[in-house]
Amino acid sequence: MRLISAQEVAKHNKRNDCWVIIHGKVYDLTNFLPEHPGGEKVILKQAGEDATQAFDPIHPPDIIQKYLPPEVCLGEIDPTTSVKTSKVETEKDKRRNLAIERKPALGEMLNLYDFEAVASQVLTPEAWAYYSSGADDEISLRENTDAFHRIWIRPRVMRNVKNVDMSTKILGYHSSFPLYISATALGKLGHPEGEVVLTRAAFKQNIIQMLPTLASCSLDEMVNAKGKDQVLFFQLYVNSDRNVTKKIVQAAEGKGCKALFITVDAPQLGRREKDMRVKFVDEPPDVHDEHNVNRNQGAARAISSFIDPGLNWADLEWFRSITSVPIVLKGIQTAEDAVLAAKYGCEGIVLSNHGGRQLDFARSGIEILPEVVEALKKEGLLNKIEIYVDGGVRRGTDIFKAIALGAKAVGIGRPTLYAMSSYGQAGVERAIQLLKDEFEMIMRLAGVNKLEDIRPEMVDIKNLSDHILVPKNYLFSDVYNKLIPTKSKL
Amino acid sequence: MRLISAQEVAKHNKRNDCWVIIHGKVYDLTNFLPEHPGGEKVILKQAGEDATQAFDPIHPPDIIQKYLPPEVCLGEIDPTTSVKTSKVETEKDKRRNLAIERKPALGEMLNLYDFEAVASQVLTPEAWAYYSSGADDEISLRENTDAFHRIWIRPRVMRNVKNVDMSTKILGYHSSFPLYISATALGKLGHPEGEVVLTRAAFKQNIIQMLPTLASCSLDEMVNAKGKDQVLFFQLYVNSDRNVTKKIVQAAEGKGCKALFITVDAPQLGRREKDMRVKFVDEPPDVHDEHNVNRNQGAARAISSFIDPGLNWADLEWFRSITSVPIVLKGIQTAEDAVLAAKYGCEGIVLSNHGGRQLDFARSGIEILPEVVEALKKEGLLNKIEIYVDGGVRRGTDIFKAIALGAKAVGIGRPTLYAMSSYGQAGVERAIQLLKDEFEMIMRLAGVNKLEDIRPEMVDIKNLSDHILVPKNYLFSDVYNKLIPTKSKL
Amino acid sequence: MRLISAQEVAKHNKRNDCWVIIHGKVYDLTNFLPEHPGGEKVILKQAGEDATQAFDPIHPPDIIQKYLPPEVCLGEIDPTTSVKTSKVETEKDKRRNLAIERKPALGEMLNLYDFEAVASQVLTPEAWAYYSSGADDEISLRENTDAFHRIWIRPRVMRNVKNVDMSTKILGYHSSFPLYISATALGKLGHPEGEVVLTRAAFKQNIIQMLPTLASCSLDEMVNAKGKDQVLFFQLYVNSDRNVTKKIVQAAEGKGCKALFITVDAPQLGRREKDMRVKFVDEPPDVHDEHNVNRNQGAARAISSFIDPGLNWADLEWFRSITSVPIVLKGIQTAEDAVLAAKYGCEGIVLSNHGGRQLDFARSGIEILPEVVEALKKEGLLNKIEIYVDGGVRRGTDIFKAIALGAKAVGIGRPTLYAMSSYGQAGVERAIQLLKDEFEMIMRLAGVNKLEDIRPEMVDIKNLSDHILVPKNYLFSDVYNKLIPTKSKL
Amino acid sequence: MRLISAQEVAKHNKRNDCWVIIHGKVYDLTNFLPEHPGGEKVILKQAGEDATQAFDPIHPPDIIQKYLPPEVCLGEIDPTTSVKTSKVETEKDKRRNLAIERKPALGEMLNLYDFEAVASQVLTPEAWAYYSSGADDEISLRENTDAFHRIWIRPRVMRNVKNVDMSTKILGYHSSFPLYISATALGKLGHPEGEVVLTRAAFKQNIIQMLPTLASCSLDEMVNAKGKDQVLFFQLYVNSDRNVTKKIVQAAEGKGCKALFITVDAPQLGRREKDMRVKFVDEPPDVHDEHNVNRNQGAARAISSFIDPGLNWADLEWFRSITSVPIVLKGIQTAEDAVLAAKYGCEGIVLSNHGGRQLDFARSGIEILPEVVEALKKEGLLNKIEIYVDGGVRRGTDIFKAIALGAKAVGIGRPTLYAMSSYGQAGVERAIQLLKDEFEMIMRLAGVNKLEDIRPEMVDIKNLSDHILVPKNYLFSDVYNKLIPTKSKL
């Protein structure tokens, strides 16, 4: 391969002549600029320079080979010439480095919120914004936690609870615990190794991981990280180009993924304003540019432009034709669609509002669960389909509530990212262990020995569907001027 | 015209001899003082001086010619003599100027609250108080936003939403979006050009504007600002003098306004204490004047003394006799009055509590909507009349909720004023564009292709009419002394 | 009368030899000490000194002559000897004096909360504590305001409201407004002239005042202050000694009081901890005195020890035998007791929890109103008895709500004390005028011309009796340690 | 006994050679280390040193003789050699000492929250954490207080309440007041004398005390502290070793305890994170020790490892065979289990969630009460069993509410600990006296003369079982980043 000097690359730094260095290779991205899902601006910022650090957390390593023609690769950077610009450490960087240095011991992490608190300190602002943000006013984001708090427990006493078994089967596959790691994007924003860290921790804890389409790691990397007999599922964003979709699905099945979770709540990706705002900190849009408004819309939009808004029920037949693994619809939000999914023969559904990241004021998965169970029962379909719930699970009691109301298992996403970002694989293992410890205790305190004993009458859901105390409207309250009485000024 | 020196004018500065300069002309307002709707005090403050700056935001330019006899105009100011007093810049002015200077870029405005936040910084205290204030404890003001938050969305998935059409017809006129700009008073408080800025932005966004009776611009100015085929409606405060009312209505129709929105919720203008208090900052009433209490009541009262409290259902016949455009009643607040409006043959109603500026504890328009739809349906009148809602609309989800519950369109008022005050026409355009972007996304995420697909069953209104979590009583909480336990003082 | 020197008085400063000077007279209170309703400690603090300043706000001037034997008066103080100790001005005094000096102009008072805010600054801590405190955790105190906020208004539009009449009759007596000044104790704590200030303001505003048993002024003083044809009612705490009670009732009737309001919610006076605590500021109990606990219980207990806990329904016959004016029971709190009152022939009842000062968690008068109206209607007694409501009335909307639900009038107590304490008679007049202005406006905005037009269907009471959002438990929240996640210490 | 020098003891300071000094005796605990319920770490911290100060608050004095073989005692410390290391006073210690020095006078304590506030200042952080903490997010802990606030009172008036009798019988034993002191562990953390302080105060106030299994005092000490005819009950944690259990029960009965309260809500002890975290302050776990996670779990876990998770209904027959006193189940949380308890012939049940220390989201005892009463009534069992309630009782109104809903008496735990920790026996007496004073007043204000008069219709429980306003999720809100609008930075 041709060796190219850093000085040579540096000359190609314009919109109509744009080279970048990624992992030691030099690419001419001039023609690709207008097609880049993340917009051309983000590439132009790196034009003529080494873009590896910006590229890595957002893209799997094999993406260029997969999607771009080979001729974009012009050669390799001449290692003797490469010039690394020394970055200055800002006040914010210093604070973050101090937080990393003074990180509490892993043993001090007593619950999932502790991990989130540490993650908020040790992550870059961009990563924290991408992971933690929700749609619009983040009402649904917070509602996901609040909804669990409207369910109370009716524990039974005086039962022998020496032995407690919390293992289960999900789509027929054994799990030590009715919980799986749900798919989340851009793992390398939180940990240099990305999603494989979760894969390894899932193996250690004997639970199932759902691999994401938008992983920072390649499918191969994730599948290669798995342990003996470890079960993996695959989450799919349906690409408008159905050939691409077919290739992805068949690769996943071929690599041994045991189920296909098709995301159905994201025909367009939600607006996450925290994620969008973090862009403006380094690079405020031109104040005078009032007519040519900046369209930079955060990490979420950057990675999602390919998602097919045309996906519909009729497509299920085609999916059946290209894969033989069970199909689960992720993002069902009404009893009506749950019944349709069962009628279309789906093996499972995930009741979810996408972690509050898509449609604000979408109800939480746990709230939807009773209406779904009732509708399926009424149609005689309850035993045809497994129901999972995600969104807001942070405590063993949350899992207990979901199981009591008819869920087969719950998914968690952000908590594992936060644990991974703070303490790597050991962090993820401990986070799951804490949930297991809590859940085991709760089973004892509630007087049950196995999951089947956790019955609907053990939870009080009188107010579950009451939307009276709604998460606070922070934007409104920030701009509202409070009334104050007139008094003497002292 | 006679030239008069500034020195000459300055001598006439008393209640029984009161001249002022407005736009270079000298007026003798001595006899008009007791009739001035805003009270004589506000004129006397300017007696013998140039009152243009105080006059402009409150009055359309043609008001003196229209309502006062020609002899009040004594002549023109001799331009060689005019003395401008140099105003000192206060700390508050400095802060405001700094806020203007450091205004975020328009591209950083991601939602309507951002515009409001900037407007609160760049507006004069008087303008901010007039625009943002509500009646009494501002319970209804805040309830307008809160009520939307008690409605949750039941989105459908797996529907082809590649194409989404959000256009509609309002009273038969095309609109790109089920939203119109509602009438608001005193636009020049926020922008030197006043309401015409909104007219131009409405044209760009292809939506309808409702012109206000109490505009700072004259009707001619607003109508002249309109684009090709642009549709305008006209909002009417009914004047006690029905000849004046007739003149106004016929002028509006003559200039091409396509509908008459008669305000029915303001037989007397509400008390807005923030607006009233702002007066006392510059000019505290005499502390010893306990029996002759200051009656200065803010901008709202100043501009409204002419409104006819005698307006009633029987007047509708007369309105039909003087105009042929559709008649819409703005400010309906019960099912009973909605049914009456339909029976009286009105073409539309606006469910509204006047932005929380009139009767505190009036319910929000969105809360009233279901009871109105049900009553009209019961009477077989639902297809006879269009229903609009205003008050508290800030997000695309709010519009979705109103449409789902049966509204034809929603109106926004303050948000366009805030956008205009912060960034002029481009601001207003962006504000509307943001709502369009949000709404289009929500239609996709909810699985609908056109407005008719947005059905009542897509929203959960179980708690819409629950008044349990009421907006905070700030005056009470400010004067209440919290209890604290006795402990050691350290 | 014998002249006694200050030096002589100063020698009698012990429990077994206790003289005090009041209004220039010297009294030997040694034998009265154990019987003093306020406890002997408070007298002993003044032993040998001039007690006038401490005596005045708590006692009517004629109380000693009325209740003590003439021989306790030993003579007059020799004016040439009297020694006034110069009091040092504390930081707190300075602050209070500054607040008085910088008091806003009366014209700046825009609502009743403004008066309360000023009163909290200009009153002595003791007076503020006595006036503002409530029972226990002050839940009922705050609930009184909150309950009104759970009622929303359904205003009607398009009605001719040029003319609005808000006059009414209470027990057959004309009032310009459906509001009376309720009885409150110790007026001189707030104003040197005491309750007569309220009497004069009530005359000016043409409303009725209810005179308190525990006034600082004597009955004669209050009655003498009344204007031509002014109507006064009399509030009665029933004394255990029925001869005393009879004397009081017949004096009130004799002086022209037109109705007897018997307080029935205070067989024992409530615990008001703010009032009790204020004692400890100047005079903390001995820290080592753990077994002989200080029983000083604030102003409330001091003035109430005579109230008869034996008062019961059978006593009504006796009251009828000693007076011919209408009898109203003040403090009814259930439908059951309202029905009993009507059956016993009472002319009226006041639904009240005594301003939240007696039983904490007693419901507010406004909440009780619908259940009372319904029960009386069911028994066919609704037209036999007038119903009044007090507690928490601060706005014209509150009055509107009470009238709509069936009240004949509402009472206010603290607001007039606050207005009196801040601005004297002019303040009280303005406070009432503000309520009248608000109420008149609300009648217009609600589309009514007279009180009879204010109908139950004009208010929405769906959640009135919901106790879900309860006033905050401040004592609890002050001692509760919030949970915080573990993170890096920076 | 052999005398051993401090220098000699000091050498045995390792895991495989571990001596400690307790009350002047030297013990070799090397073999006992792995069996210590509190974990070996806490002993190793004292290895080679005098452990008395750490031992005392956690263990009754006779525990070593009872449970360890005699040979662990090696001899006595040679008093001439003992070396006391002078402890340095930290900032925290200084603050605590200052708080103790400046403690308010006992007479200033006006309610139970005052005692709690003082206790939070004068207790060691470890004691405060152990006493005040609750399970998980402490939702149930706070709910216990909140639930009482959702009950409102319907007082009756015009009843002769001169005489009020608040005495009752509990399991046939006289009590001056429907309240008992419930069992709580580790009294010496709060007061050097421990639980006997409570015993003495209970005697003075003529109420019943329930002695705890996990007392710091021995059973003998507590029983010896009792006064003439004083009634004591005994609380039992069932030991896995039933011989131990039998010995304990028979000892309690033998010493005169009149009832056996078997704790049934603690098959495993709850997670109390405040209690767990306090450990890390002095001794943070090794930051690098990510795989060998610190298992130190606070005082709660340390003392509870022996509790039998196998306890079940069938065991009741065995309990009947070993004791003749009434059996009460403490920790019933559903109507179902209440009915079972009655059917199994238990004499009483305590509705309780263990002070919110066990299962978070368990409902409060007071909420469960109506469902239990209804179920027992339906089964005809209501008169077969007495019902008690504990959790959150802080005011006389709370007791009134419980009695009205059918409780025979209420228990309090933490409040007596706080009173004891702050002011010793006098504090406990005053705390109970304050409750009595409040309750007596409430009986008067509610119009009742004896406990039987307190009827269900005197309380309004419409919203008692509504879980809409749930205690705040502090961990969540601490890590959640609030949204703020973009504005000019000033």
From TrEMBL, chains A, B, C, D:
Residues 1-78 form the Cytochrome b5 heme-binding domain. The keyword Iron applies. CDD domains: FCB2_FMN (cd02922). It is found in: Mitochondrion intermembrane space. The keyword Heme applies. It catalyses: (S)-lactate + 2 Fe(III)-[cytochrome c] = 2 Fe(II)-[cytochrome c] + pyruvate + 2 H(+). Gene3D superfamilies: Aldolase class I, Cytochrome b5-like heme/steroid binding domain. Its EC number is 1.1.2.3. Homotetramer. This is L-lactate dehydrogenase (cytochrome).
